[in-house]
């Protein structure tokens, strides 16, 4: 038996969750070798980069779609019924385009900018009050994935930076994490943040628009400012869209990258595309069981380095 085969057998025994039928991998040996390398260098060399909506949050719960950070604003405290109808119409128009496997990223880009710009314009017209955001989050059915507390807490305990990169609404995202009691000091967020006037009323959105397919630009722009990420050359990346794969482009001198894709919708149409793009594909998995199992393995003392 070769050294690599021995390592992979050891990892298969240590992470039995990877054998679940909902876990797909095109190159299992490469996945296991990457996890092994990450384990050898330990948590001090690791950083985690993740999307938020439909990645750290559930896609659905008890047969109903879970709201994204944009959808959480669909509350009569914040927006009126007419605005709700317009935003829903935009969702029904543009979301099928976002996940259409037949269209290229280049074809989708201008349409995503169009979608986000229209939604933000509608929200600004509603004069949303900052002091009502927390209540809107409390009243929403938003849910983080099962296992979220272990995920956030273990990363904090091991001092592993968690960079959340979201095309959603940063103010709402922060409130969701805060109300779930997992907003630890190791969490950094790049997202679309609201700009409130001196009375606490929404007047604009700050900075460059972040949408599903321009995260590479955001990653490169923000990388230099996140000094706590420097020197961490192993990246665990979580996302639910092909656009999320560019979130680590700002990381310098990467040695090992492991990507996990949550395939939530249109499974058969997008399965092949996801398998060709992500190292691990999780099919209709509403939990963080697999990321947690991988992190647990990376955080433990290496056991198999001498096995052949």
UniProtKB/TrEMBL annotation:
InterPro entries: HAD-like_sf, HAD_sf, Pyrimidine_nucleotidase_eu. It holds the Pfam family UMPH-1. Belongs to the pyrimidine 5'-nucleotidase family. Its main location: cytoplasm. GO terms for biological process: nucleotide metabolic process. The keyword Ribosomal protein does not apply. Monomer. Its EC number is 3.1.3.5. NCBIfam families: HAD-SF-IE (TIGR01544). It catalyses: CMP + H2O = cytidine + phosphate; N(7)-methyl-GMP + H2O = N(7)-methylguanosine + phosphate; a ribonucleoside 5'-phosphate + H2O = a ribonucleoside + phosphate. It comes from the Eukaryota. Specifically hydrolyzes 7-methylguanosine monophosphate (m(7)GMP) to 7-methylguanosine and inorganic phosphate. The specific activity for m(7)GMP may protect cells against undesired salvage of m(7)GMP and its incorporation into nucleic acids. Also has weak activity for CMP. UMP and purine nucleotides are poor substrates. One of its GO terms (cellular component) is cytoplasm. This is 5'-nucleotidase. It comes from Neogobius melanostomus. Keywords: Cytoplasm, Hydrolase, Magnesium, Metal-binding, Nucleotide metabolism, Nucleotide-binding. It is found in: Cytoplasm. One of its GO terms (molecular function) is magnesium ion binding. The keyword Metal-binding applies.
């Amino acid at each position: 038996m070769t050294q690599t085969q021995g390592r992979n057998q050891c990892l298969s025994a240590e992470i039995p969750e990877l054998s679940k039928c909902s876990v797909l991998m095109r190159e299992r040996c490469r996945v296991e070798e990457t996890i092994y390398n990450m384990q050898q260098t330990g948590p001090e060399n690791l950083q985690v980069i993740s999307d938020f909506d439909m990645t750290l949050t559930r896609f659905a719960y008890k047969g109903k779609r879970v709201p994204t950070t944009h959808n959480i604003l669909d509350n009569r405290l914040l927006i009126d019924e007419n605005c709700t109808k317009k935003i829903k119409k935009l969702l029904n128009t543009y979301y099928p385009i976002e996940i259409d496997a037949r269209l290229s990223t280049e074809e989708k880009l201008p349409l995503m900018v169009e979608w986000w710009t229209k939604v933000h314009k509608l929200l600004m017209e509603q004069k949303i009050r900052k002091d009502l955001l927390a209540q809107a989050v409390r009243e929403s059915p938003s849910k983080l994935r099962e296992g979220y507390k272990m995920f956030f807490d273990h990363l904090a305990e091991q001092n592993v930076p968690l960079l959340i990169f979201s095309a959603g609404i940063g103010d709402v995202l922060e409130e969701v994490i805060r109300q779930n009691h997992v907003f630890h000091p190791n969490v950094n967020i790049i997202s679309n943040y609201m700009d409130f006037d001196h009375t606490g009323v929404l007047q604009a959105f700050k900075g460059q628009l972040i949408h599903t397919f321009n995260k590479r630009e955001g990653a490169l722009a923000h990388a230099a400012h996140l000094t706590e990420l420097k020197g961490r050359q192993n990246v665990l990346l979580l996302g639910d869209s092909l656009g999320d794969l560019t979130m680590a482009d700002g990381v310098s001198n990467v040695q090992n990258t492991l990507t996990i894709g949550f395939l939530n919708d249109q499974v058969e149409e997008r399965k092949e595309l996801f398998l060709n793009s992500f190292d691990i594909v999780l099919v209709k998995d509403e939990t963080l069981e697999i990321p947690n199992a991988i992190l647990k393995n990376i955080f433990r003392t290496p056991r198999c380095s001498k096995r052949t």
